[in-house]
Amino acid sequence: MLIGENTMSEFGRNVKKTRTLIIPFGTVEAHGDHLPINTDTLIIREVIKKVAEKNNVYMAPPIQYGVCTSTSAHPGTLGITTQSLRLIATDIVRSAYAHGLRNFILISGHGGSLHVSALREVAENLTQELDKVKIAALSIYELLGKETQEIIETKGDSHAGEAETSLVLHLAPKLIKGRSKEEYPRMPKPIAVKDKDKLKYWPGAVWGNPQKASADKGEKLFKVMVEKVEELIKRIEKLR
Ligand SMILES: [Zn+2]
């Protein structure tokens, strides 16, 4: 069920059938020269939409913007701060809680560490604040394990590489423009030392090998993602 497509009275009826709301978080972020800037939002939106159609749970309209650090200098990345992300995530959960929802999954299509830790901080704080709330906050990639290694060949594939390119080939092939080269960034070591010139370490905004992507791999990966989110719903709904 999609909140955004319900009328007021449909929401009133449906909120009696489910107490679970999944909120997808994406980014506006450079994804190589072959994938759309909308990639993270597109993938997580389609996965959660499928989950919400198949199961008795709600999906909230996605939050399009996220916190992007490594790609902040790449053309097209429009990032927000962790403060903004925490505020919007907190406001949405509080508001949905006031309307009767109790189980929340804040799930990101972007695995950036500051971005995901901001969502976890929100989950931690709201668990203390709201009496009957249950919250999970994570990146979808944290749910994937050995099933993924059987589908994706590239070791260390993480951004605009084999996995994301395969998913976009499955979900929106018309949005792909050719195929960027394989790339593995050489981030400064230790990574805690910041350099203003980020493009020097990672010019292409690809981490992995887009050349190995296929629509078939994307379809398989998509199916695994849907199943993993379904398992997570069962876990959170059972939790006391
Ligand atoms: Zn991505």
Can you describe this structure?
This protein is an alpha/beta fold. The protein has one domain (3-238): 3-Layer(aba) Sandwich (Rossmann fold), CATH 3.40.50.10310. It is 42% helix and 8% strand. The protein has seven helices and four strands; from the N terminus they run αβαβαβαβααα. The chain has helices spanning 8-17, 39-54, 82-98, 113-129, 146-151, 162-171, 215-238, and strands at 20-25, 58-59, 103-108, 134-139. A four-stranded parallel β-sheet has the order 2-1-3-4, sandwiched between helices. The longest helix has 24 residues, at 215-238. The chain is globular. The model has no long low-confidence stretch (mean pLDDT 96). Residues 31, 39-40, 110, 159, 164 line the site of zinc ion (ZN).
Tell me the quaternary state. single chain
The CATH class designation is Alpha Beta
Shape: globular
Cα separation of the termini = 24 Å
Q: How would a crystallographer describe the biggest sheet?
A: 4 strands, parallel
